[in-house]
Amino acid sequence: MMNNLKFVNAHSPEWSEIAMSMTRDYFHWMNGEIEKTCSFSISDVVGMPLDQYITTAANEICPKDPSAAKYYLLVDDGTAVAMGGWRTLPSGDAEVVRIYTKPEYRGRGMGSMTMQRLIEDVRQAGFKKLKLDTGIFMKDAQAMYASHGFSACSAYEGAEPPAALLPYWLFMELDLS
């Protein structure tokens, strides 16, 4: 496959349920990695069942306001293979959110293609900095972020990870000026 790749609006009626399903897959995978790395779960640190947290956080992390955020699925011949988005932070910088590639499509550049799209969007929107957060266990993602020019930075206001995760989390930024 990989002949007919295109980005679609993850919030559109046609794709929103698939985007939510992929978001659940992403969080269930990440929760397993957090449990292995940290000896606690996302539910433990957010104080609610994981699926409830996913639903609660979805609109905040991937808002439907096209002037302040974008959320995409990368689709190949009608099948969503990757996702990613960006949103505006309280500081006025932009943040990459929900970069995820389905396991069976990893290693084919889908995450990098999604990141490139997000960087282009954020640059066109006039932002000067693009930030992101990532778990220490997300080594492939960190390498991909570095390949796009991201470097380590301090934790920033508006980042999603709760305080209990901070010792296990990394923060990165890309200067777009």
Write the layout of secondary structure elements.
Layout: E1 5-9, H1 16-38, H2 42-46, H3 50-61, E2 69-76, E3 79-88, E4 94-101, H4 110-124, E5 129-135, H5 139-147, E6 151-152, E7 169-175
Parallel strand pairs: 4-5
Antiparallel strand pairs: 1-2, 2-3, 3-4, 5-7, 6-7
Helix pairs in contact: 1-3
Q: Decide which structural class fits the backbone.
A: alpha+beta
Beta-strand content bin: 25-35%
CATH topology: Aminopeptidase
What Rg is obtained from the alpha carbons, in whole angstroms? 15 Å
**Apparent shape:** globular
Number of structural domains: 1
* Number of helical elements: 5
The count of DSSP E runs of length 2 or more, i.e. the number of strands, is 7
- The strands making up the biggest β-sheet line up spatially as 1-2-3-4-5-7-6
End-to-end separation in angstroms reads 37 Å
Q: Report the sheet with the most strands, covering strand number, pairing sense and barrel closure.
A: 7 strands, mixed
Q: Could you state the CATH homologous superfamily?
A: Gcn5-related N-acetyltransferase (GNAT)
| CATH architecture name | 3-Layer(aba) Sandwich
Overall pLDDT level:
94
Stretches where pLDDT falls below 50 for ≥5 residues?
Answer: none
Helicity level: 25-40%
What series of H and E elements makes up the topology? EHHHEEEHEHEE
CATH class: Alpha Beta
